Amino acid sequence: MRGMSLTFQTSALTTGGQSMAARWPMRLKSLWVSAMLASLLLLESGCTTIVDFFRQSPQALPPASQLYAEGETQLSKNRYEDARTAFRKVAERHPQSSYAPKARFLLGEAFYREGQFDKAIKEFEAFMAFYPRHQIADLVQFRLAMSYYDQMKPVEQDQEITRKAMEAFKVLVREYPESRYAADALAKIDICRGRLAQKELWVAAYYINQGNPSAARPRLEKVIKEYPRTLVIPEAMYRLGEVYSGDGRTEDSQRMFRQVAEEYPYTDWGKRAAQRLQTATR
Predict the structure, then answer these.
(1) Domain tally, the chain
(2) Does residue 31 lie in a domain region?
(3) Do 146 and 124 touch, CB atoms closer than 8 A?
(4) Is residue 79 part of a domain?
(5) Cβ-Cβ contacts under 8 Å for 78 (sequence gap 6 or more)
(6) Which residues, 6+ apart, have CB-to-CB distance to 20 below 8 Å?
(7) Under the phi-then-psi rule, with left for phi > 0, alpha for psi from -120 to 50, and beta for the rest, what region is 157?
(8) Nearest one of 266, 272, 244 to 256, comparing CA atoms
C-alpha cells in the first residue's frame, strides 16, 4: 500500500508526461512580459503628465501702452538695449496701435544715442516709409539727416557721407518747410556745402603743389560755380587766377584777381589779389 501511495503522488505531479516543475518557467516568462507592458504604458502616461506639468502656458502680451512706457523708462536710464526690446515689441506686435509710430522712432533714437548710426538710419528710414505724414515725421527726418551729419569726416577723407547729410536736410526743408527744425536744417546745409567746397579746394591745391595746374582748374571752377557763398571762395578765385596766369590767359587772370580784390578786400586773398594787380600795371 505504501508503494501504491508513492506511485499515486508522483503521477499527480505529471500531466501528459510533462511535470509541473517544467511548466513554471513558461508562466514566469508570461508574467514578466505582462509586467513590462504595463510598466511601459505607465511610463508613457507618466512622461506625458510630466511634460504637461513643466510646459509653461503662453503668457498674454502686455498692452502697447505698458510696453511703450517701459521703453521710455529704459531709454531715460540709458539702457538702450532694453529700451529697444520694448519699443520693438510695440512696433512689431501692436502695429495698429497709436504707439507704434513713436515706438519705431524711439527704436531708432536708442541706436542714435548709442552712436550706432547705421542702424539708426535704417529705423528712421523705415519710419519715413510707413508714416511720411505723421506729426513727428519732420523730427524723424531731422534725426535721419543728423545720423549722417554726425559721421562727417575730415576734408582729407571721402565726403560721400556729407553729401547724404546735405540731401537729407534738403528733404526736410522741402517736405516740411514749416517745421521747427527747418532753420537748423538750412544752417547745416550751408555747413555741408562748405565742407564739400573745402574738399574740392583741397584736391585742387594738391594738384597745384604737384605741378599739375591743369588738373586743378576744373576743381576750382566747380567750387566757384557750385559753392558761391562758402568761405573758401576768395581762395578758390585767387588760385584760379594764378592758374589762368600760368596758362597765358592774362585777361581771365586779371579779371579773377580784380573780382577777389573788390569783393573780398579785407581777406588775405583779397589783399594778395590787389598786389598782383598793382604788379601787373607797373
Answers:
(1) 1
(2) no
(3) no
(4) yes
(5) 113
(6) 13, 14
(7) beta
(8) 244
Contact 216, 243 (CB under 8 A): yes
Q: Is residue 168 part of a domain?
A: no
Tell me whether residue 109 is in a domain.
Answer: yes
Q: How distant, in Å, are the alpha carbons of 87, 153, 218 from that of 227?
A: 42, 19, 13
Question: For residue 205, which of 234, 235, 163 has the smallest C-alpha distance?
Answer: 235
**Residue 204 contacts residue 239 (beta carbons within 8 Å):** yes
Q: Determine how many CB atoms are found less than 10 A away from the CB of residue 160.
A: 10
Helix, coil or strand: residue 143: helix
Beta strands in the chain (DSSP E): 14-15, 18-19
Q: In a structure prediction context, what are the per-residue pLDDT tens digits for the chain, which is 282 residues long?
A: 444 333 333 343 344 444 444 454 555 455 554 555 555 444 455 544 444 444 555 667 899 999 999 999 999 999 999 999 999 999 999 999 999 999 999 999 999 999 999 999 999 999 999 999 999 999 999 999 999 999 999 999 999 999 999 999 999 999 999 999 999 999 999 999 999 999 999 999 999 999 999 999 999 999 999 999 999 999 999 999 999 999 999 999 999 999 999 999 999 999 999 999 998 776
Q: Taking the complete model, does pTM exceed 0.90, yes or no?
A: no
Cα separation, 27 vs 179, in Å, equals: 94
Record the cell numbers describing residue 132, joined without a space: 511720411
State the sign of the Cα–Cα–Cα–Cα dihedral 87, 93, 95, 98: negative
List the domain range (segments joined by +) for residue 87: 64-114
